[in-house]
């Protein structure tokens, strides 16, 4: 088993997270990727992000809730975030997971919660980005998206380049004139479902980039957030958009808080919209382990933090 696969397998074991949470130094290391535990912690980071000319996205960490009450609590946090975004007049959008809003408890529960969040977003003229989780939920997530999108043009979705199915899904989303985030994909998936080789994932990302920026997709109103820290793909995005003379208002770059902040200035200098996604919440374990799995070198930093006196 590769280290990436091991870390991703561990990411689905919340009990390990509870044990890690008791080690204060782990929490300090987690702060590199997670703004803190409260909305105030997130807004402190988002305010400084936006002051630098960047746009923001905010995620209340959590997934796969077990009861309707937990799902309702997550919904209420997103409603509060939307109110605060409007009150503070920040260029920030929420980015949420459907399993946090109760997808595993039944579509009706999730749809009800999602609708309330989308209504609040629409009243504030704010997009609501719906994250993509493991392939167990891809169909349900895209079906729900297709259902709400005609009523809520402020609903945005995510596709993952590592899934073999994504090129088909993207055609469906282009027909909807969707607002889309293109990412590589962060979960452990079997090779029949996702490309196991990173080079194939990168090639798929390039093909999808081309498709999402094709004239017919743009004519249908497609807007894409290219979510990556991969300098080669970002250079390619610049090349393609310059060559095709695609206006900078038709796409954006998205990055995660704590990863490659050194690229922000350069991308802003190119006149691009750069959105930084800032997560917060107590339930940081799954998110954090996926960040470790993306770059196992992070594990070395974590271990150094644990053995070095502060
Ligand atoms: C805004 C945003 C939203 C996302 N939403 C989703 C989603 O809804 N569903 C989903 O499955 N995935 C999501 N992802 C995660 C994504 O799928 C990838 O796992 C992640 O972005 C790493 O891939 P990469 O494109 O940066 O390329 P990589 O090839 O993994 O990395 C390129 C370079 O970026 C840097 N880097 C990347 N990751 C890290 C890290 N963890 N720590 C330190 N440096 C790193 C390194 O310098 C690396 O060489 C999202 C990513 C972003 C940026």
The percentage helix is 40-55%
Small-molecule binders here are:
flavin-adenine dinucleotide
- How many distinct helices? 14
Largest sheet: 8 strands, parallel, barrel
Distance between the termini: 33 Å
Number of strands: 8
Structural class: alpha/beta
**Strand-and-helix sequence, N→C?**
HHHHEHEHEHEHEHHEHEHEHH
Percent strand = 5-15%
3D shape: globular
Which regions are unreliable across 5 or more consecutive residues at pLDDT < 50? none
Arrangement of strands in the largest sheet: 1-2-3-4-5-6-7-8
The radius of gyration over CA amounts to 19 Å
Average pLDDT number: 93
Write a brief structural summary:
The protein has helices at residues 3-10, 14-21, 24-30, 39-51, 68-88, 107-123, 138-148, 166-175, 198-212, 215-219, 231-243, 264-269, 285-294, 297-307, and strands at residues 55-60, 92-96, 128-130, 155-160, 179-183, 223-227, 251-256, 274-280.
Q: What structural keywords apply?
A:
alpha/beta, 8 strands, binds flavin-adenine dinucleotide
Task: Write structural notes for this entry.
This protein has about 300 residues and is α/β, with parallel strands linked by helices. The protein is about 50% helix and about 15% strand. The chain contains 14 helices and 8 strands. The chain has helices at about 5-10, 15-20, 25-30, 40-50, 70-90, 105-125, 140-150, 165-175, 200-210, 215-220, 230-245, 265-270, 285-295, 295-305; strands at about 55-60, 90-95, 130, 155-160, 180-185, 225, 250-255, 275-280. An 8-stranded parallel β-barrel has the order 1-2-3-4-5-6-7-8, surrounded by 6 helices. Helix 11 (about 230-245) links the parallel strand 6 (about 225) and strand 7. Helix 1 (about 5-10) runs antiparallel to helix 13 (about 285-295) and helix 9 (about 200-210) runs parallel beside helix 11 (about 230-245). Bound molecules: flavin-adenine dinucleotide. Flavin-adenine dinucleotide binds near residues 185, 187, 228, 230 and 294.
């Amino acid at each position: 088993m590769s280290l990436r696969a091991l870390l991703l397998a561990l990411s689905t074991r919340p009990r390990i997270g509870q044990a890690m949470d008791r080690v204060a130094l782990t929490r300090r290391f987690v702060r590199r990727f997670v703004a803190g535990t409260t909305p105030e912690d997130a807004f402190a980071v988002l305010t400084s992000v936006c002051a630098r000319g960047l746009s923001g996205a905010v995620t209340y960490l959590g997934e796969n809730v077990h009861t309707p009450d937990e799902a309702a609590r997550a919904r209420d946090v997103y409603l509060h975030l939307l109110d605060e975004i409007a009150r503070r007049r920040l260029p920030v959008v929420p980015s949420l997971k459907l399993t946090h809003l109760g997808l595993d408890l039944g579509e009706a529960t999730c749809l009800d919660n999602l609708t309330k969040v989308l209504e609040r977003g629409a009243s504030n003229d704010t997009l609501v980005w719906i994250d993509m989780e493991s392939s167990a939920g891809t169909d349900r997530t895209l079906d729900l998206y297709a259902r709400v999108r005609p009523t809520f043009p402020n609903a945005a979705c995510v596709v993952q380049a590592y899934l073999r199915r994504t090129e088909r899904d993207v055609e469906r989303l282009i027909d909807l004139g969707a607002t889309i985030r293109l990412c590589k994909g962060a979960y452990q998936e079997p090779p029949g479902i996702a490309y196991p080789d990173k080079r194939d994932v990168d090639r798929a990302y390039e093909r999808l980039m081309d498709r999402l920026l094709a004239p017919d997709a743009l004519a249908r109103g497609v807007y894409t957030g290219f979510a990556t820290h991969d300098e080669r793909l970002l250079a390619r995005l610049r090349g393609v958009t310059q060559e095709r003379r695609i206006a900078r208002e038709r796409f954006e770059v998205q990055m995660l808080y704590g990863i490659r902040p050194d690229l922000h200035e350069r991308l802003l200098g190119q006149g691009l919209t750069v959105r930084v996604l800032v997560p917060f919440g107590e339930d940081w374990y799954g998110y954090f382990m996926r960040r470790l799995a993306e770059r196992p070198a992070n594990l070395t930093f974590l271990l150094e933090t644990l053995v070095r006196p502060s």
